[in-house]
Amino acid sequence: MFETLTDRLTKTFSFLRDRKELTDDNIEEGLRAVRQALLEADVNFKVVKDFTDRVKERVVGGRRIQGVEASQQFVAAFHHELVQLMGPKDVRLEFAKNGPTIVLMAGLQGAGKTTTCAKLAKHLRDKHGRRPLLVAADVKRPAAVEQLKVLGRQINVPVFHKEGLAPPALCQQGVAYALTAGADMVILDTAGRLHVDQALMDEVRDIAQLVRPTNTVLVLDAMTGQDAVNSAKAFNDTLALTGVILTKLDGDARGGSAVSLKAVTGKPILYVGVGEKIDDLDTFHVERMAGRILGMGDVVGLVEKAQSAISEQEAQDSFEKLVMGSFTLEDMLAQLRMVRKLGPMKKVLGMMPGMSGLADSVNIDDKQMNRLEALFTSMTPRELSSPSSSTWAAAVASRRARGKTSPR
Q1: Residues 74, 18: one domain?
Q2: Is the pTM value of this prediction over 0.90?
Q3: Considering 86, 121, 137, which residue would you say is the last residue of a domain?
Q4: The pairing of beta strand 243-247 with beta strand 132-136
Q5: Within this chain, do residues 175 and 250 fall inside the same structural domain, yes or no?
Q6: Cα distance between residue 392 and residue 385, in whole Å
């Protein structure tokens, strides 16, 4: 996500690296390039104007800092204002003090709302220790109820639904069922709608008035750009939104909606969908996202991902074997599997400082890791544990030869 914007901004800042100080001319040149990069990323033009004016004011105020490169001053000012634009602070879902926390999920057709409901349920259960209940109240779209039931079985979360009920009554009974089922979190999956469809907008408003949700969350497709921002404004006129979940940020999203959503609607981004898997829902951290947009990476996010995917004991065992010189192909296979738990390598590289450009320019094929793992698992235990490099080479060569000659 944001690859195009990051690339343009990196090139914009690079021209200042050889400048000893900031001047009116190079400040204007830099701001002009930043303005163009943001507009190309589909950021709202009013937001771009206000943002660049604030960056200019901050840069001009710090232009006489001694010992700091001009490009670093410019990037620091840009980062600060970008955080203020998308933040200024991280906002989270509110949990009810008494009774179950109710989350009303609304959104446009095709934004991935039903899948996001399941992702959110799993995230709240695994990260916050909640006991979620999913309510299938999307009776408009064919197979929407069955889709949520399948996802519920996949993540082992109960799904409530009763045939023949209108969505408002269905949601009300779902909340009542949660009280008897011991659930402390109710996620209502309502029908996707167009913001111009007044009947469906009235329906979701009726649901909100009936169940009084703790949080009302709008699910938006990041790939729709400024149309997502316009939709958020329309929904906010009908519902008192808590915040937004942006989906499909792993796709060809230019990032304009993420950058300008808070400024235009006043509603924060709570979570972002970064993949198709059920675990691909990340909490939105403003400072981390600003750092990734500027090519600074997200080291904290990478460490958190590694901690959730790799146990401390596994990491310690691998380290000790490397130090003691007893590292074998069997250990290498274990490390390969640990690395694969982190997700696609392109995404991992993008979270490392200064590596976002490399991730874009290098053709990273995760299928090669599949082939390498298959190669290792085809070896005998003796071949995997043998310390002889010649044995390793012979084993690898024989497996490759066998793969080329075997029938497909």
Answers
A1: yes
A2: no
A3: 86
A4: unpaired
A5: yes
A6: 9
Phi-psi group of 333: left, alpha or beta (phi > 0 → left; psi -120 to 50 → alpha; rest → beta): alpha
CATH number of the domain to which 41 belongs: 1.20.120.140
Q: pLDDT (tens digit, 9 = 90+) per residue, 345-400?
A: 666 666 665 555 555 556 666 777 777 777 777 777 777 776 555 555 666 676 66
Q: What angle do CA 19, 21, 25 make, to 5 degrees?
A: 80
* Residue 91 included in any domain: no
Distance of CA 309 to the CA centre of its chain: 16
Alpha-carbon torsion (66, 69, 70, 75), positive or negative: negative
Summarised one tens digit per residue, pLDDT across range 97-130 is 888 999 999 988 888 899 999 999 999 999 999 9
Domain count for the chain, please give it: 3
Whether 281 and 318 share a structural domain = no
In degrees, rounded to 5, the angle at the alpha carbon of residue 104 between the alpha carbons of residues 99 and 109 is 165
DSSP 3-state of 135: strand
**Residue 67 in 3-state DSSP?**
coil
Domain of 74 in residue numbering reads as 3-86
Regarding whether 82 and 128 lie in a shared domain, the answer is no
One domain, residues 392 and 329 = yes
Which residues of 222-258 form beta strands (DSSP E)? 243-247
Domain containing residue 204: CATH number = 3.40.50.300
The sheet with strand 185-189 has its strands ordered as 159-160, 132-136, 185-189, 101-107, 215-221, 243-247, 269-273, 281-283
Neighbours of 120 (CB within 10 A): 24
| Sequence-separated (6 or more) residues with CB below 8 Å from residue 165 | 173
Whether 155 and 268 map to the same domain: the answer is yes
- Residues 51 and 46: their CA atoms lie apart, in Å, by 8
Between CA 92 and CA 90 the distance in angstroms is 7
Residues β-bridged to residue 133: 186
Q: Which residues pair with 244 in a beta bridge?
A: 218, 269
User: What value does the mean pLDDT take over residues 59-77?
Assistant: 66
Pairing type for strands 281-283 and 269-273 reads: antiparallel
193 contact partners, CB below 8 Å, separation of at least 6: 106, 107, 108, 109, 200, 201, 203, 204
